[in-house]
Amino acid sequence: MSANLTAHVAADATRPSTGHVTLVGAGPGDAGLLTIKGLRALEAADVIVADRLGARSVLDGLAAEGVHLAAEIVDVGKLPGHHAVPQDAINALLVTLARDGKRVVRLKGGDPFIFGRGGEEVASCQEAGVAVEVVPGITSAISVPAIAGIPLTHRGLATTFTVVTGHDQIQALGGGRDHTVVLLMGVGTLANSAITLSRGERGGTCPVAIIEDGYGSGQRVTVGTLDTIALQAARRGIRSPAVVVVGDVVTLSPYAPEAITTATGAPAAIPSPEALPASADRKTTQP
Ligand SMILES: C[S@@+](CC[C@H](N)C(=O)[O-])C[C@H]1O[C@@H](n2cnc3c(N)ncnc32)[C@H](O)[C@@H]1O
């Protein structure tokens, strides 16, 4: 915990609240995908308590565009799922800062209420009598597939979608390829998830896309099938953060190799990393 943060937490927590907390969804990391309401809250803030994933790159992006934020920035995030500061300490910090009379923005990646523990932070503020509001953000579950040209629903291909984490029990997840599955935090458990989903109605030839570091400098798209994706991921050294999309909508992606877009039930060949389109890497050409 930084010295700054320690000082904040140690402040007198018994004083009445005069400040307030606004949870702001930062979106997937591109400053252009922050909402105007979120930007206004950042501009009005005294303190911004920021996560690393999504939030920091949005702050950097705003600075690069010449947006000057007067607020003190407290960094409480590390990598996805590994908070540098425990959740209880973040909750306590938000309450303490608000009780010090500060206008606090809690800047969180994506949307605060999608696997973001935003509900816990809201509850903690409410229990402490601190005024709190939420400005939704664009979740990575939708926006990261979009940058790879994948809509989660599409007439004739998919009428529903489910967002789960790689840690969830996905055995019970019904439906076929027309039911899109989006996995967040799914890299570590990818092989297991792929086997589980392939045993159901989707089958092993169901298309899968993995989008790493969406909107970031390391953006990369890998497309395969439930049978092939774990091997592809291992070969390419796929890393978190990444969004995994499972279902026929993946065939709409310009990154999908022909073997997958034309496969109609027949097992697709494993595309070698070399066979994947060069445009799969942001560092080269985008679609
Ligand atoms: C703890 S969850 C938070 C989700 C966030 N609240 C949201 O609405 O996007 C973190 C996971 O979101 C996904 N994620 C968030 N931003 C991403 C990005 N820019 N590129 C790829 N995946 C991302 C990854 O699956 C990551 O492991």
Automatic annotation (TrEMBL):
<keyword id="KW-0808">Transferase</keyword>
<keyword id="KW-0627">Porphyrin biosynthesis</keyword>
<dbReference type="InterPro" id="IPR014777">
    <property type="entry name" value="4pyrrole_Mease_sub1"/>
</dbReference>
<feature type="domain" description="Tetrapyrrole methylase">
    <location>
        <begin position="21"/>
        <end position="229"/>
    </location>
</feature>
<keyword id="KW-0949">S-adenosyl-L-methionine</keyword>
<dbReference type="InterPro" id="IPR006366">
    <property type="entry name" value="CobA/CysG_C"/>
</dbReference>
<feature type="region of interest" description="Disordered">
    <location>
        <begin position="266"/>
        <end position="287"/>
    </location>
</feature>
<dbReference type="InterPro" id="IPR003043">
    <property type="entry name" value="Uropor_MeTrfase_CS"/>
</dbReference>
<dbReference type="Pfam" id="PF00590">
    <property type="entry name" value="TP_methylase"/>
</dbReference>
<dbReference type="InterPro" id="IPR014776">
    <property type="entry name" value="4pyrrole_Mease_sub2"/>
</dbReference>
<dbReference type="InterPro" id="IPR050161">
    <property type="entry name" value="Siro_Cobalamin_biosynth"/>
</dbReference>
<dbReference type="InterPro" id="IPR000878">
    <property type="entry name" value="4pyrrol_Mease"/>
</dbReference>
<protein>
    <recommendedName>
        <fullName>uroporphyrinogen-III C-methyltransferase</fullName>
        <ecNumber>2.1.1.107</ecNumber>
    </recommendedName>
</protein>
<dbReference type="InterPro" id="IPR035996">
    <property type="entry name" value="4pyrrol_Methylase_sf"/>
</dbReference>
<keyword id="KW-0489">Methyltransferase</keyword>
